[in-house]
Amino acid sequence: MVSGPPRAVLTVSALNAILRAHLEPAFAGVWVEGELSNLRTPSSGHSYFTLKDAASQLKVVVFRSVARTLKFALKDGACLICRGRVTVYEPKGEYQLVVEYAEPKGIGALQLAFEQLKERLTAEGLFDPKRKRALPLFPRRIGVVTSSTGAAFRDIVQVVHKRFPNVEILLNPVAVQGPEAAGEIARAIRELNDIDGVDVLIVGRGGGSLEDLWPFNEEGVARAIVLSRIPVVSAVGHETDYTIADFVADVRAPTPSAAAELVVRDRQDLLKRLQGFWNRAVQAVRVRIRDCRARVESERRALLGPAARIQRAMQRRDDLEIRLRKAWTARIGEGRTALQALRHDLLLKNPLQRIRQALAMLPHLHSRLRQQMQVILELCRRSLQESMVGLHSRSPLAVLARGYSITRRWPDMMLVRRASDVAEGEAVHVRLSAGELICEVRRVTEEPLIRRTEGV
Fold first, then answer.
1. Is 97 within the bounds of a domain?
2. Which terminus of the chain is more exposed, N or C, with fewer CB under 10 A?
3. Range of the domain at 325
4. What is the distance between the alpha carbons of residues 59 and 371, in angstroms, rounded to a whole number?
5. What does the pLDDT look like over 39-63, one tens digit per residue?
């Protein structure tokens, strides 16, 4: 056995408890910087991840109560600066950082939250200009969501009463900064939507830091503006300040005073424009009356007295009489011409006249007929002679006249074409060009009996 002082043997749990007791007081408010990885967020709402750098890593836990206060969403790959306390998770014997505050490195937490919410709402189409509504031309009641003690409301009242005193302003006072402001603003927008007769809403406040203006960057306020049935004008901060409310509102005004000018038209300007319209209308009516008077005067001058009207009527009668005579004379002339044409047609269609014309043509036609008949007879005669010549050249008698004969066996008169068609001692009938012969066959041979000598 090993000699020495008595051993103090600790259990694992006891050792982890001792380590925890030493670590937590020593690292109660430590700041740690690193890259977020392996993010897990179970149904409990707590977030677990690892902070790492090039050489090491640290387990981190963000409990739900702290996660709700973060203005941005945790994402893998983000570089964070965290403040918290180091503790030991005894069941696993691991030390970890319990985060009490976190912000993104290089960009503020609020700015990151702003960009993340803007990106998400853009993807939903809440910034689409097509969903924006036009402001009413002459609102009678304006709803205002702002602080009752701030300069923004006083500016709005002053501008509205100066431009159009008869417009009613309905204020729903809210806190415009602080943790409860966003909820109050969204609730005030919904309450004004439940009131009848509100034509337009102005939601805004005066200038301030990003933290002061932050309630107007909350998602709850943005969705309340989107769901409003009444057109909304956003008037937050100064001209250089932009919030999520500006992007989702129907109209964005750079300041509360500018919002009042956009919503309410200047009464004096409207009266001047109306006076201008009235003057133009009066001038147009005067011009119209002057034109009508000129036309009446022209018509009056054109009117004639009874004597002049009688003279004009008599002149008109004489003119009509002359025109009637000319027309009647022309009509009679046309009738005579038509009558002459009918007489000529009647003469042409008279049977006796047609017979006389035919008789006059008869000698000429008889002469032409005789000439044509002579020509035709001469052509026929020539054709007949040519046919007779051709027929005679093809006649068997013409062949016989050239010394040929036709031989038939006697007495059946069968035509003999070869020597073998008859036998010796048989009789044959021979037809000559002039006369006929009855001959007796003395010898039958296929070879010629009489040979012609050359040169004969």
1. yes
2. N
3. 312-363
4. 141
5. 888 888 899 998 888 788 899 999 9
